[in-house]
Design brief:
The complex is a heterotrimer. By secondary structure, chain A is mostly helical. In chain A, 70% of the residues lie in helices and 0% in strands. Chain A folds into 2 domains: 126 residues, no CATH class; 95 residues, no CATH class. The longest helix of chain A is centred in the middle third of the chain and has 29 residues. The longest helix of chain B is centred in the middle third of the chain and has 16 residues. By secondary structure, chain B is α/β, with parallel strands linked by helices. The model of chain B has no long low-confidence stretch (mean pLDDT 93). In chain B, the strands form 2 sheets. Chain B has a 6-stranded mixed sheet with strand order 6-7-8-3-9-10. A 4-stranded antiparallel sheet of chain B has the order 2-1-4-5, with no helix packed on it. In chain B, helix 3 crosses helix 4 and helix 3 packs parallel to helix 5. Chain C is of the alpha/beta class. In chain C, strand 7, helix 7 and strand 8 form a beta-alpha-beta unit. Chain C is globular and about 65 Å long. The relative contact order of chain C is 0.14. Classes of the chains: A mainly alpha, B alpha/beta, C alpha/beta. At the B-C interface, helix 6, helix 10 and helix 11 of B face helix 7, helix 11 and helix 12 of C.
């Protein structure tokens, strides 16, 4: 089980233009990619949507982490490809669906890698989301890397007591995760209680009028990104509705040996 | 015997944590690994039972290269008790918790029951045999975690920060227990920054700083080397500091525990009278 | 002038068979530096929670008796209301700091109080200055050492400008050098800012030189209360608390017939006495 997939969603502070972008602009950009990826089933369009992200990854200087999370997502991607193909889709269509999945994963991975949970919280607060809600969300995001570390420690501790996670039949392997999950859940609960005590002790909820010390301000570049995304999205919808895209024909399909084909 | 040869370790795409460690720990020794936070103490002991493999160099446990054995195999001889018991406990009862490792190692039910009952008694936990481990107090949970490792009777035992959060009596009991384990011939390795605890039980101290061993001497000697202690963010034990203050009167700086100090002072005063 | 007054305080956690604290009566004056100690399970943490209102607001149970802190009866106020009067610093810095910069963590408290940005800014800079970590303000907590993290936790509490700060075993996870440094910070807060300190600790050897008063608890009750030198006697030893080693040393020397004028609690006190004994 690879905990590396979490690396692709973990925030690290770097001085890049992507990191410095206002989280709201970044969010609009991510949603733009999200909608575009769901809109198209055409392989050429999806290739474009996937490739468009690469210069952004480059600008954010997170090649390695992004690549490792893509690699970790490969398992699920392969599953999607196989399932599509086995159930009768063409090889091209299966590839398109796989690419769609990778694009979605990549877009969100990029967002979380370049946006600090604190800024996320501020963005939500300034969007007038109730404070308790935005705080819960950002704390959950912040705790992901901490929980991943905890998980590794629990795995180490149980392996040191002779637990072998890679042995045994399927049922046994599933049962072997109980000594991992329970301490993890218990640790998470204890951690949350300690955190809650600390928050209460610092006046959480004392006043309904919070004035955060640091305020997010949209710069002109952020507005530009927002507008550009909306324009691209409009273009994408136009293409979808009015421009028929070619589909390469690779005549390989699943042989009809299964009853559902 | 646990040996490391030019042991270097780095997590993937991270700077090295262990920068070349040559260490030999003989059977039955009592060793304290000390050093500042981040010096690499926990990383080092994780190479002893195979959880981590050296990136350069090797680690041998009783002649067996850790690269050639699984963690389960190595753990039979090297028992590692982690710092936080909550990272281990998961069973419905304390008895089940203790039986866990024995089941993993393939012991038969009868032996399991026997060993579990025995270790419960040794660590004064018999009354909790049928209790849930989660309702026990912090100190009791730490004892259960210790019992869970001792139950399979490993030859070498490593305790990671066993004194954090413990009160004086609990530390006293721990100290006596370590002495007992040593008398039974077991190797005991503790990771700690508790200078006072170490001053009372006087093990061999291996001092780690930034991934390197900067000192490897008996407690009486190392705990009076102030510049060395300072590098590892440690201080002299209180008695040691007192002896240092009064060195002009010929009091030995190696007297780091209360009893040696008492003897030294009485002797010195008697001589002067 | 009492800043903390407890009168026959008794508290039993919900579902617990016995009270965690019984018959607690205390009178602490403003500006005192009190060390609260005792064997595990004696009720020290329960008292901490009562002092800032976590009991009875966060932890329910049977609460009887009176506890007035800084003029406020804890029964009649929420923890949030008490937060600007009493601060509580916990053992593990990891679970107290949750932002991605120290500055934001320290600002959290004043923000919760609904203060203006200018006021929050002032308090944050002040608190960071007092604890000596202004140059760390943009760093995330996980890049800080344990000692620095605890300083940040103290700064976060200080920014609420409480009159009392309670610290529950703050040096547990710290190495000896960091432990000494953090105690200096706490001591200077007590002396320069006249903030009352209640420090729960096992390591009496390092706290005794700062404390003017030590309260020893055992099995849910207060059993000893006085100056360090007075309290570290035979009774304390029998309860099983960890007396400073120099005190234990002198107790042994006394048993061997040496005349001790006053039980030392620090290395300096012990050294001075021994020096005069040697040069007689």
């Amino acid at each position: 089980m690879s905990l590396k997939v979490f690396d692709g969603f973990k925030f690290a502070k770097l001085p890049t233009p992507i990191h410095n972008m206002d989280p709201r602009a970044k969010f609009i950009m991510t949603i733009g990619l999200f909608v575009a990826a769901l809109l198209f089933s055409n392989i050429y369009a999806l290739i474009v949507i996937f490739l468009i992200q690469l210069p952004i990854v480059y600008a954010a200087k997170t090649w390695r982490k992004w690549a490792s999370s893509m690699r970790a997502g490969l398992l699920l991607a392969t599953l999607i490809f196989v399932m599509n193909f086995v159930f009768g889709s063409t090889i091209v269509f299966s590839a398109a669906m796989t690419l769609r999945f990778l694009s979605l994963m990549s877009a969100f991975s990029l967002f979380f890698m370049t946006t600090s949970p604190d800024d996320l919280g501020l963005a939500l607060e300034q969007a007038h989301v109730p404070y308790t809600l935005s705080f819960t969300f950002t704390t959950a995001v912040r705790l992901v890397p901490t929980m991943a570390l905890d998980a590794q420690t629990v795995i180490d501790a149980q392996r040191s007591r002779g637990l072998e996670l890679d042995k045994g039949n399927f049922m046994k392997r599933i049962r072997n995760y109980i000594p991992i999950l329970i301490p993890l859940i218990v640790s998470a609960i204890r951690r949350s209680i300690e955190l809650a005590e600390a928050l209460e002790s610092r006046g959480f909820g004392a006043s309904p009028n919070r004035k955060p010390l640091i305020v997010l301000r949209m710069k002109s570049t952020d507005y530009l990104v927002g507008v550009a995304t909306l324009l691209m999205l409009a273009l994408a919808v136009y293409v979808y509705l009015f421009i028929p895209l070619p589909t390469p024909s690779i005549p390989i399909t699943m042989p009809k040996i299964f009853p559902w084909l | 015997m646990i040996e490391t040869e030019e042991l270097r370790f780095a997590y993937p795409s991270s700077p090295e944590v262990l920068l070349g460690i040559d260490l030999t720990i003989n059977d039955g020794e009592f060793v304290a690994i000390m050093g500042e936070n981040g010096a690499g103490k926990t990383t080092l002991v994780k190479t002893f039972n195979g959880l981590l493999m050296p990136t350069v160099g090797k680690v041998k446990v009783d002649g067996l290269d850790t690269r050639e054995a699984s963690v389960a195999r190595l753990s039979r001889d090297v028992g590692l008790v982690f710092q936080n018991p909550d990272h281990q406990l998961f069973s419905e009862t304390v008895k089940e918790e203790l039986a866990f490792s024995l089941r993993n190692f393939g012991y038969d039910e009868e032996t399991i029951q026997r060993r579990v009952t025995s270790i419960l008694e040794t660590l004064d936990l018999s009354r909790y045999a049928e209790s849930s481990p989660f309702i026990l107090s912090g100190g009791e949970r730490k004892r259960v975690a210790l019992a869970a490792v001792l139950v399979w009777n490993p030859k070498h035992i490593i305790l990671d920060e066993p004194t954090i959060g413990q009160d004086y009596q609990q530390k006293d009991r721990l100290r006596n227990f370590i002495v007992q384990l040593n008398t039974q011939g077991k190797t005991v390795i503790i990771i700690t920054h508790d200078v006072e605890f170490v001053a009372e039980c006087k093990p061999r101290i291996v001092l780690l700083s930034r991934g390197k061993v900067i000192g490897d001497r008996p407690a009486e000697e190392l705990l009076s080397d102030e510049p060395l202690l300072d590098k590892a963010s440690l201080t002299r034990p209180q008695i040691g500091a007192l002896m240092h203050e009064l060195r002009e009167f010929g009091l030995p700086e190696s007297a780091i525990d209360v009893y040696s100090a008492q003897q030294a002072i009485l002797h010195s005063l008697g001589r002067r009278k | 002038m009492s800043i903390i007054r407890a009168d026959h305080l008794i508290f039993t956690y919900m579902g617990a068979p016995r009270p965690s604290i019984q018959n607690i009566s205390l009178d602490i004056s403003a500006g005192e530096f009190v060390v609260l100690t005792g064997p595990s399970g004696c009720g020290k943490t329960t008292i901490c929670r009562c002092l800032n209102g976590l009991i009875p607001n966060f932890y329910s149970g049977d609460f009887s008796g009176e506890l007035i802190v800084d003029g406020m009866n804890v029964k009649d106020h929420t923890t949030a209301e008490l937060a600007s009067h009493v601060g509580l610093v916990f053992q593990n810095p990891e679970n107290q700091l949750f932002s991605l910069s120290i500055e934001r963590d320290v600002a959290f408290g004043p923000e919760n109080l609904g203060l203006s940005r200018e006021e929050t800014r002032k308090r944050v800079d002040w608190a960071l200055g007092v604890t000596g970590i202004i140059d760390l303000k943009d760093k995330p907590p996980y890049e800080l050492s344990g000692g620095q993290q605890q300083r940040a936790a103290i700064a976060a509490v200080l920014a609420m400008q409480p009159k009392v700060i309670v610290l529950d075993e703050p040096t547990s996870f710290l190495d000896p050098k960091s432990a000494l440094e953090i105690l200096e910070v706490i001591s200077s807060i007590n002396k320069r800012l006249r903030i009352t300190i209640i420090l729960v600790e096992h390591r009496l050897d390092i706290v005794s030189r700062h404390a003017n008063r030590v309260i020893v608890m055992n099995e849910s009750r207060i059993v000893l209360d006085g100056r360090p030198g007075e309290v570290y006697g035979e009774e304390a030893r029998l309860i099983g608390i960890g007396l400073p080693r120099v005190t234990t040393l002198f107790q042994l020397l006394q048993k061997e017939g040496l005349r001790i004028s006053q039980m030392p609690t620090t290395v300096d006190e012990a050294a001075n006495q021994l020096r005069s004994m040697f040069t007689q």
